[in-house]
Amino acid sequence: MTLTLADDGEYVLVLSAAERIFLVASLTMSQTHTGDAEYEITIGRSKSAADRDRDAWRLTEDEVGGYLLHLTQSELGFILASLRLCVTHVSDAEYEIVIGRRRPDSATELTDLEDQAELAFLARITQEVDRKGGWQLVLARMGDLSLLADEVLVDRLAAEASEQGKTIEAGERQRKLAQQAKIDAMLAELERRGTDVQAVLARLLGSDDAGVRLLAASKLLRSNPAARLTLESLANPGKPSLAQAAARTLRSRRQREP
């Protein structure tokens, strides 16, 4: 399954015929194998409301015999939650009998779809903010970075990374983008001065703050072996959202490796 961002800001899920059958079977199974109360708590809507929403979906055929499912943010979230419920509430044997594929394979595909959804969401919000001139306002409020001493700038960078870690843990994805814009501006200023940014980030790898370590490791993943170890450590449970962000960075890197 491939998720793309449409010009109108909504999402398009590209499905093969087999993937369409899998999706329908999974959504049905998520309802039939959970109680009404558990389903509503997990999915955020009743089974009858979910059925009505599914009837309103916009599904069209493409030129090569596949399907295009047009989704709002809410509809995409419903699909992801339903698929996650399905792969976590059924035994391996029962899942394979009903769905027709191994549960671990579906779990891997779901993780990939969740990564695509996160990237598409961030792209959508970035486009919306850019159209409104929001990034210029964010950067203007930072003041003239060129007037700051190197150590002051590095301290501000670490403080912003720490706050971003808290934002990630709180699930505030739009605020995270604004913080990332500030972080990128500070890194760009350090590079403009000729500062050894790699050395600065390597020093931040040793921070006690998880958000600071996440930023430094994400930036150093291609060049510093310690960055991978840091991300693997952060990917362990404890701070779920930070762990997901670290794991997503590692998966993205592995996908690009030969």
The global form is elongated
Task: Say what oligomer this is.
Answer: single chain
The gyration radius over C-alpha positions equals: 21 Å
For the largest beta-sheet, the strand count, sense and barrel status come to:
4 strands, antiparallel
What does this structure look like?
The protein has 258 residues and is of the alpha+beta class. It is 70% helix and 7% strand. The protein contains 13 helices and four strands. It has helices at 17-32, 36-43, 47-55, 73-88, 92-99, 103-131, 134-140, 150-170, 173-193, 197-204, 210-220, 225-234, 240-256; strands at residues 2-5, 11-15, 58-61, 67-71. Strands 1-2-4-3 form a four-stranded antiparallel beta sheet. A hairpin with a 5-residue loop joins strand 1 (2-5) and strand 2. Helix 1 (17-32) packs across helix 4 and helix 12 (225-234) crosses helix 13 (240-256). It starts with a strand and ends with a helix.
Provide a quick synopsis of the model.
By secondary structure, the chain is α+β, with helices and mostly antiparallel strands. 70% of the residues lie in helices and 7% in strands. It has a four-stranded antiparallel beta sheet.
SSE topology sketch:
Elements: E1 2-5, E2 11-15, H1 17-32, H2 36-43, H3 47-55, E3 58-61, E4 67-71, H4 73-88, H5 92-99, H6 103-131, H7 134-140, H8 150-170, H9 173-193, H10 197-204, H11 210-220, H12 225-234, H13 240-256
Antiparallel strand pairs: 1-2, 2-4, 3-4
Helix pairs in contact: 1-4, 4-6, 8-9, 8-11, 8-13, 10-11, 11-12, 11-13, 12-13
Descriptive terms for the model:
single chain; 258 residues; alpha+beta; four-stranded antiparallel β-sheet; 13 helices; elongated
